[in-house]
Amino acid sequence: xxxxxxxxxxxxxxxxxxxxxxxxxxxxxxxxxxxxxxxxxxxxxxxxxxxxxxxxxxxxxxxxxxxxxxxxxxxxxxxxxxxxxxxxxxxxxxxxxxxxxxxxxxxxxxxxxxxxxxxxxxxxxxxxxxxxxxxxxxxxxxxxxxxxxxxxxxxxxxxxxxxxxxxxxxxxxxxxxxxxxxxxxxxxxxxxxxxxxxxxxxxxxxxxxxxxxxxxxxxxxxxxxxxxxxxxxxxxxxxxxxxxxxxxxxxxxxxxxxxxxxxxxxxxxxxxxxxxxxxxxxxxxxxxxxxxxxxxxxxxxxxxxxxxxxxxxxxxxxxxxxxxxxxxxxxxxxxxxxxxxxxxxxxxxxxxxxxxxxxxxxxxxxxxxxxxxxxxxxxxxxxxxxxxxxxx
Length: 392
Known about the structure:
By secondary structure, the protein is of the alpha/beta class. It contains 13 helices and 16 strands. Strand 1 (9-14), helix 1 and strand 2 (37-38) form a beta-alpha-beta unit.
Protein backbone atom coordinates (compact mmCIF):
# COMPACT_ATOMS: atom_id res chain seq x y z
CA UNK A 1 0.00 0.00 0.00
CA UNK A 2 1.14 3.53 -0.64
CA UNK A 3 -0.52 4.76 2.51
CA UNK A 4 -2.67 3.09 5.15
CA UNK A 5 -3.81 6.19 6.98
CA UNK A 6 -4.52 9.85 6.35
CA UNK A 7 -1.30 11.71 5.63
CA UNK A 8 -1.00 14.81 7.79
CA UNK A 9 2.68 15.73 8.15
CA UNK A 10 4.02 18.26 5.61
CA UNK A 11 7.53 19.50 4.86
CA UNK A 12 7.81 22.67 2.72
CA UNK A 13 11.13 23.61 1.10
CA UNK A 14 11.45 27.12 -0.38
CA UNK A 15 13.72 28.10 -3.24
CA UNK A 16 14.23 31.64 -4.54
CA UNK A 17 13.21 35.13 -3.53
CA UNK A 18 11.12 36.77 -0.83
CA UNK A 19 7.99 36.33 -2.95
CA UNK A 20 8.47 32.58 -2.65
CA UNK A 21 9.09 32.87 1.08
CA UNK A 22 5.71 34.56 1.44
CA UNK A 23 4.07 32.03 -0.88
CA UNK A 24 5.39 29.22 1.32
CA UNK A 25 3.87 30.93 4.35
CA UNK A 26 0.56 31.16 2.48
CA UNK A 27 0.74 27.45 1.65
CA UNK A 28 1.58 26.56 5.24
CA UNK A 29 -1.29 28.70 6.49
CA UNK A 30 -3.74 26.97 4.15
CA UNK A 31 -2.50 23.54 5.20
CA UNK A 32 -2.62 24.21 8.95
CA UNK A 33 -6.13 25.61 8.52
CA UNK A 34 -7.00 22.25 6.95
CA UNK A 35 -5.56 20.37 9.94
CA UNK A 36 -2.22 19.40 8.42
CA UNK A 37 0.87 19.46 10.62
CA UNK A 38 4.14 21.09 9.54
CA UNK A 39 7.54 19.55 10.13
CA UNK A 40 11.06 20.85 9.61
CA UNK A 41 12.33 17.28 9.16
CA UNK A 42 11.72 15.92 5.66
CA UNK A 43 12.35 12.32 6.68
CA UNK A 44 9.36 12.54 9.01
CA UNK A 45 6.98 14.00 6.41
CA UNK A 46 4.17 12.27 4.56
CA UNK A 47 3.95 15.16 2.09
CA UNK A 48 6.93 17.05 0.67
CA UNK A 49 6.40 20.32 -1.19
CA UNK A 50 9.07 22.13 -3.21
CA UNK A 51 8.20 25.80 -3.74
CA UNK A 52 10.35 26.63 -6.74
CA UNK A 53 12.00 29.46 -8.67
CA UNK A 54 12.61 29.75 -12.43
CA UNK A 55 14.36 33.12 -12.59
CA UNK A 56 17.74 31.51 -13.32
CA UNK A 57 18.89 28.14 -14.59
CA UNK A 58 20.95 27.62 -11.46
CA UNK A 59 17.82 27.90 -9.31
CA UNK A 60 16.04 25.24 -11.35
CA UNK A 61 19.07 22.94 -11.32
CA UNK A 62 19.04 23.00 -7.51
CA UNK A 63 15.39 21.90 -7.47
CA UNK A 64 15.90 19.02 -9.92
CA UNK A 65 18.90 17.89 -7.89
CA UNK A 66 16.96 18.02 -4.63
CA UNK A 67 14.03 16.08 -6.07
CA UNK A 68 16.49 13.41 -7.21
CA UNK A 69 18.07 13.19 -3.77
CA UNK A 70 14.67 12.83 -2.12
CA UNK A 71 13.86 9.97 -4.47
CA UNK A 72 16.96 8.12 -3.33
CA UNK A 73 16.74 9.14 0.31
CA UNK A 74 13.26 7.93 1.15
CA UNK A 75 12.63 4.24 1.66
CA UNK A 76 9.02 3.21 2.30
CA UNK A 77 8.42 2.69 6.02
CA UNK A 78 5.38 0.91 7.37
CA UNK A 79 3.72 1.03 3.96
CA UNK A 80 4.03 4.82 3.63
CA UNK A 81 5.67 6.58 0.68
CA UNK A 82 5.62 10.39 0.85
CA UNK A 83 3.69 12.39 -1.71
CA UNK A 84 5.86 14.95 -3.51
CA UNK A 85 4.64 18.23 -4.99
CA UNK A 86 6.33 20.87 -7.11
CA UNK A 87 4.69 24.28 -6.83
CA UNK A 88 5.54 27.83 -7.87
CA UNK A 89 7.37 29.12 -10.93
CA UNK A 90 8.86 25.85 -12.16
CA UNK A 91 5.42 24.26 -11.94
CA UNK A 92 4.04 26.97 -14.21
CA UNK A 93 7.07 26.83 -16.49
CA UNK A 94 7.04 23.07 -17.13
CA UNK A 95 3.52 22.04 -16.10
CA UNK A 96 2.79 18.31 -16.57
CA UNK A 97 6.18 17.80 -18.25
CA UNK A 98 7.65 17.73 -14.74
CA UNK A 99 6.23 14.21 -14.33
CA UNK A 100 8.30 13.03 -17.30
CA UNK A 101 11.56 14.25 -15.79
CA UNK A 102 10.75 13.37 -12.18
CA UNK A 103 8.45 10.36 -11.96
CA UNK A 104 8.34 10.55 -8.14
CA UNK A 105 6.47 13.89 -8.29
CA UNK A 106 2.74 13.50 -7.60
CA UNK A 107 1.35 17.02 -8.06
CA UNK A 108 2.30 20.25 -9.82
CA UNK A 109 0.71 23.59 -8.89
CA UNK A 110 1.36 27.02 -10.41
CA UNK A 111 1.64 30.28 -8.40
CA UNK A 112 -1.94 31.36 -9.12
CA UNK A 113 -3.37 28.00 -8.04
CA UNK A 114 -1.83 27.54 -4.59
CA UNK A 115 -5.22 27.88 -2.92
CA UNK A 116 -6.05 24.46 -4.40
CA UNK A 117 -3.17 22.62 -2.69
CA UNK A 118 -5.10 21.27 0.35
CA UNK A 119 -7.83 19.85 -1.92
CA UNK A 120 -5.25 18.30 -4.25
CA UNK A 121 -3.48 16.60 -1.35
CA UNK A 122 -6.78 15.31 0.03
CA UNK A 123 -7.60 13.80 -3.36
CA UNK A 124 -4.17 12.17 -3.68
CA UNK A 125 -4.37 10.76 -0.15
CA UNK A 126 -7.77 9.26 -0.85
CA UNK A 127 -6.47 7.73 -4.08
CA UNK A 128 -3.25 6.35 -2.60
CA UNK A 129 -5.07 4.77 0.34
CA UNK A 130 -6.95 2.59 -2.16
CA UNK A 131 -3.85 1.24 -3.89
CA UNK A 132 -3.06 -2.36 -3.14
CA UNK A 133 0.09 -2.74 -5.21
CA UNK A 134 2.72 -0.03 -4.61
CA UNK A 135 3.96 -0.54 -8.17
CA UNK A 136 0.66 0.55 -9.69
CA UNK A 137 0.75 3.89 -11.46
CA UNK A 138 -0.39 6.56 -9.03
CA UNK A 139 -2.61 9.57 -9.72
CA UNK A 140 -0.87 12.69 -11.07
CA UNK A 141 -2.49 16.11 -10.66
CA UNK A 142 -1.46 19.45 -12.11
CA UNK A 143 -3.15 22.83 -11.74
CA UNK A 144 -1.57 25.63 -13.77
CA UNK A 145 -4.48 27.47 -15.37
CA UNK A 146 -5.31 29.93 -12.59
CA UNK A 147 -5.23 33.68 -13.10
CA UNK A 148 -6.12 35.56 -9.91
CA UNK A 149 -5.49 34.33 -6.38
CA UNK A 150 -8.43 34.39 -3.97
CA UNK A 151 -7.90 37.23 -1.49
CA UNK A 152 -8.62 35.04 1.53
CA UNK A 153 -5.38 33.05 1.15
CA UNK A 154 -3.47 36.03 2.54
CA UNK A 155 -5.43 36.10 5.79
CA UNK A 156 -4.61 32.82 7.56
CA UNK A 157 -2.27 34.75 9.91
CA UNK A 158 0.54 32.27 9.43
CA UNK A 159 3.98 33.91 9.73
CA UNK A 160 7.30 32.10 9.96
CA UNK A 161 9.01 35.07 11.62
CA UNK A 162 7.29 36.33 14.75
CA UNK A 163 8.66 39.87 14.43
CA UNK A 164 8.63 40.43 10.65
CA UNK A 165 6.11 39.75 7.89
CA UNK A 166 6.08 39.96 4.10
CA UNK A 167 2.95 41.48 2.58
CA UNK A 168 2.34 41.01 -1.15
CA UNK A 169 0.90 44.15 -2.78
CA UNK A 170 0.90 42.86 -6.36
CA UNK A 171 1.36 39.67 -8.33
CA UNK A 172 3.02 39.22 -11.70
CA UNK A 173 4.72 41.79 -13.92
CA UNK A 174 3.97 43.50 -17.24
CA UNK A 175 7.42 44.93 -17.98
CA UNK A 176 8.52 42.09 -20.29
CA UNK A 177 12.24 42.57 -19.74
CA UNK A 178 13.73 40.40 -22.45
CA UNK A 179 15.62 38.08 -20.07
CA UNK A 180 12.93 37.64 -17.43
CA UNK A 181 10.59 34.66 -17.12
CA UNK A 182 8.38 36.21 -14.40
CA UNK A 183 5.57 37.48 -16.71
CA UNK A 184 5.30 33.97 -18.16
CA UNK A 185 5.19 32.10 -14.85
CA UNK A 186 3.37 34.66 -12.66
CA UNK A 187 1.32 36.45 -15.30
CA UNK A 188 0.75 40.13 -15.94
CA UNK A 189 0.68 42.73 -13.18
CA UNK A 190 -2.29 42.38 -10.82
CA UNK A 191 -2.55 44.82 -7.91
CA UNK A 192 -4.35 43.92 -4.71
CA UNK A 193 -6.94 46.25 -3.25
CA UNK A 194 -5.15 48.65 -0.91
CA UNK A 195 -7.85 48.04 1.72
CA UNK A 196 -7.01 44.32 1.73
CA UNK A 197 -3.30 45.12 1.99
CA UNK A 198 -3.88 47.38 4.98
CA UNK A 199 -6.12 44.74 6.54
CA UNK A 200 -3.30 42.19 6.24
CA UNK A 201 -0.78 44.61 7.74
CA UNK A 202 -3.19 45.17 10.64
CA UNK A 203 -3.58 41.41 11.13
CA UNK A 204 0.19 41.01 11.32
CA UNK A 205 0.43 43.79 13.90
CA UNK A 206 -2.35 42.15 15.91
CA UNK A 207 -0.15 39.02 15.94
CA UNK A 208 2.67 41.01 17.57
CA UNK A 209 4.63 41.67 14.37
CA UNK A 210 6.18 45.13 14.24
CA UNK A 211 8.16 45.06 10.96
CA UNK A 212 6.71 44.68 7.46
CA UNK A 213 8.16 44.36 3.96
CA UNK A 214 5.86 45.19 1.05
CA UNK A 215 6.47 42.82 -1.87
CA UNK A 216 5.99 43.03 -5.61
CA UNK A 217 7.94 42.37 -8.78
CA UNK A 218 7.64 46.11 -9.42
CA UNK A 219 6.17 47.89 -6.41
CA UNK A 220 6.44 51.32 -8.03
CA UNK A 221 3.86 50.31 -10.65
CA UNK A 222 1.21 49.83 -7.95
CA UNK A 223 -2.08 51.54 -8.75
CA UNK A 224 -5.51 50.62 -7.38
CA UNK A 225 -8.30 53.08 -8.13
CA UNK A 226 -6.81 56.45 -7.13
CA UNK A 227 -4.14 55.00 -4.82
CA UNK A 228 -0.61 54.77 -6.21
CA UNK A 229 2.44 53.35 -4.47
CA UNK A 230 3.39 56.61 -2.72
CA UNK A 231 -0.13 56.92 -1.33
CA UNK A 232 -0.02 53.26 -0.25
CA UNK A 233 3.16 53.70 1.80
CA UNK A 234 1.60 56.75 3.43
CA UNK A 235 -1.37 54.58 4.44
CA UNK A 236 0.94 51.87 5.81
CA UNK A 237 2.84 54.49 7.81
CA UNK A 238 -0.39 55.30 9.64
CA UNK A 239 -1.02 51.72 10.87
CA UNK A 240 -0.92 51.80 14.67
CA UNK A 241 1.52 49.40 16.31
CA UNK A 242 3.77 49.12 13.24
CA UNK A 243 7.31 50.21 14.02
CA UNK A 244 9.11 49.82 10.70
CA UNK A 245 8.46 48.86 7.08
CA UNK A 246 10.27 48.65 3.76
CA UNK A 247 9.58 47.52 0.18
CA UNK A 248 11.08 45.52 -2.69
CA UNK A 249 11.56 45.55 -5.64
CA UNK A 250 11.62 48.89 -7.47
CA UNK A 251 11.98 49.35 -11.22
CA UNK A 252 13.97 52.42 -12.33
CA UNK A 253 11.52 53.38 -15.08
CA UNK A 254 8.67 53.73 -12.55
CA UNK A 255 10.63 55.21 -9.64
CA UNK A 256 9.66 58.80 -8.82
CA UNK A 257 11.04 61.72 -6.87
CA UNK A 258 7.76 61.69 -4.92
CA UNK A 259 8.72 58.27 -3.59
CA UNK A 260 12.12 59.57 -2.50
CA UNK A 261 10.43 62.45 -0.67
CA UNK A 262 8.08 60.01 1.06
CA UNK A 263 11.07 57.93 2.14
CA UNK A 264 12.67 61.04 3.60
CA UNK A 265 9.51 62.21 5.38
CA UNK A 266 7.93 59.02 6.70
CA UNK A 267 9.32 58.02 10.08
CA UNK A 268 8.59 54.29 9.91
CA UNK A 269 9.73 53.74 6.31
CA UNK A 270 13.29 52.42 6.12
CA UNK A 271 15.77 54.49 4.17
CA UNK A 272 16.57 51.58 1.91
CA UNK A 273 16.16 51.29 -1.85
CA UNK A 274 16.80 48.21 -3.96
CA UNK A 275 16.98 49.54 -7.53
CA UNK A 276 18.18 46.94 -10.06
CA UNK A 277 20.28 48.48 -12.84
CA UNK A 278 21.17 45.14 -14.56
CA UNK A 279 23.73 46.75 -16.91
CA UNK A 280 25.69 49.97 -17.31
CA UNK A 281 25.59 49.78 -21.10
CA UNK A 282 22.85 51.63 -22.98
CA UNK A 283 23.05 49.11 -25.80
CA UNK A 284 22.53 46.16 -23.46
CA UNK A 285 19.79 47.98 -21.52
CA UNK A 286 17.91 48.45 -24.80
CA UNK A 287 18.31 44.75 -25.65
CA UNK A 288 17.04 43.95 -22.16
CA UNK A 289 13.98 46.17 -22.76
CA UNK A 290 14.54 47.93 -19.46
CA UNK A 291 12.97 51.24 -20.49
CA UNK A 292 15.68 53.60 -19.23
CA UNK A 293 19.23 54.67 -20.07
CA UNK A 294 22.40 54.77 -18.03
CA UNK A 295 22.00 58.54 -17.56
CA UNK A 296 18.35 58.11 -16.45
CA UNK A 297 19.49 55.67 -13.80
CA UNK A 298 22.35 57.85 -12.57
CA UNK A 299 20.00 60.85 -12.32
CA UNK A 300 17.73 58.78 -10.08
CA UNK A 301 20.65 57.86 -7.84
CA UNK A 302 21.79 61.47 -7.53
CA UNK A 303 18.28 62.56 -6.53
CA UNK A 304 17.86 59.64 -4.13
CA UNK A 305 21.04 60.51 -2.28
CA UNK A 306 20.18 64.21 -2.27
CA UNK A 307 16.68 63.69 -0.88
CA UNK A 308 17.08 60.58 1.31
CA UNK A 309 20.00 61.40 3.57
CA UNK A 310 22.19 58.40 4.39
CA UNK A 311 19.86 56.17 2.38
CA UNK A 312 21.09 52.64 1.70
CA UNK A 313 21.23 51.62 -1.98
CA UNK A 314 21.49 48.11 -3.44
CA UNK A 315 21.11 46.72 -6.95
CA UNK A 316 21.05 43.69 -9.27
CA UNK A 317 23.49 43.16 -12.14
CA UNK A 318 23.60 40.62 -14.97
CA UNK A 319 26.89 39.94 -16.74
CA UNK A 320 27.30 38.00 -19.97
CA UNK A 321 24.02 39.01 -21.61
CA UNK A 322 23.96 37.97 -25.29
CA UNK A 323 26.36 40.08 -27.41
CA UNK A 324 27.83 41.84 -24.35
CA UNK A 325 31.24 43.12 -25.42
CA UNK A 326 34.19 44.03 -23.28
CA UNK A 327 33.19 47.70 -23.68
CA UNK A 328 29.64 46.93 -22.52
CA UNK A 329 31.04 45.12 -19.53
CA UNK A 330 33.42 48.00 -18.78
CA UNK A 331 30.43 50.37 -18.76
CA UNK A 332 28.83 48.19 -16.10
CA UNK A 333 32.06 47.99 -14.11
CA UNK A 334 32.45 51.76 -14.20
CA UNK A 335 28.87 52.32 -13.10
CA UNK A 336 29.35 50.04 -10.09
CA UNK A 337 32.67 51.73 -9.25
CA UNK A 338 31.26 55.24 -9.51
CA UNK A 339 27.86 54.63 -7.89
CA UNK A 340 29.26 52.81 -4.83
CA UNK A 341 26.27 50.65 -3.96
CA UNK A 342 26.05 49.38 -0.40
CA UNK A 343 25.57 45.91 -1.87
CA UNK A 344 24.88 44.28 -5.23
CA UNK A 345 23.50 40.92 -6.31
CA UNK A 346 25.52 39.89 -9.36
CA UNK A 347 24.38 37.11 -11.68
CA UNK A 348 25.66 35.35 -14.78
CA UNK A 349 23.14 35.42 -17.61
CA UNK A 350 21.31 32.20 -18.42
CA UNK A 351 18.60 31.83 -21.11
CA UNK A 352 15.06 31.41 -19.77
CA UNK A 353 12.22 29.63 -21.60
CA UNK A 354 9.59 31.81 -23.31
CA UNK A 355 11.64 35.03 -23.05
CA UNK A 356 12.64 37.26 -25.96
CA UNK A 357 16.31 36.91 -25.03
CA UNK A 358 16.05 33.14 -25.48
CA UNK A 359 15.95 33.82 -29.22
CA UNK A 360 19.28 35.63 -29.03
CA UNK A 361 22.52 33.69 -29.38
CA UNK A 362 24.01 33.05 -25.96
CA UNK A 363 27.44 33.93 -27.32
CA UNK A 364 29.40 34.97 -24.23
CA UNK A 365 31.40 31.88 -23.20
CA UNK A 366 30.84 30.46 -19.73
CA UNK A 367 34.45 31.15 -18.76
CA UNK A 368 34.07 34.79 -19.78
CA UNK A 369 30.84 35.14 -17.80
CA UNK A 370 32.63 33.75 -14.77
CA UNK A 371 35.56 36.14 -15.28
CA UNK A 372 33.29 39.18 -15.54
CA UNK A 373 31.21 38.00 -12.60
CA UNK A 374 34.31 37.71 -10.40
CA UNK A 375 35.64 41.12 -11.42
CA UNK A 376 32.44 42.95 -10.52
CA UNK A 377 31.91 40.83 -7.41
CA UNK A 378 35.41 41.63 -6.13
CA UNK A 379 34.86 45.33 -6.84
CA UNK A 380 31.57 45.37 -4.97
CA UNK A 381 33.04 43.49 -2.01
CA UNK A 382 35.71 46.17 -1.67
CA UNK A 383 33.12 48.96 -1.91
CA UNK A 384 30.84 47.28 0.65
CA UNK A 385 33.71 46.79 3.08
CA UNK A 386 34.78 50.43 2.77
CA UNK A 387 31.23 51.64 3.36
CA UNK A 388 30.88 49.37 6.41
CA UNK A 389 34.08 50.81 7.90
CA UNK A 390 33.01 54.40 7.18
CA UNK A 391 29.61 53.88 8.82
CA UNK A 392 31.14 52.85 12.15
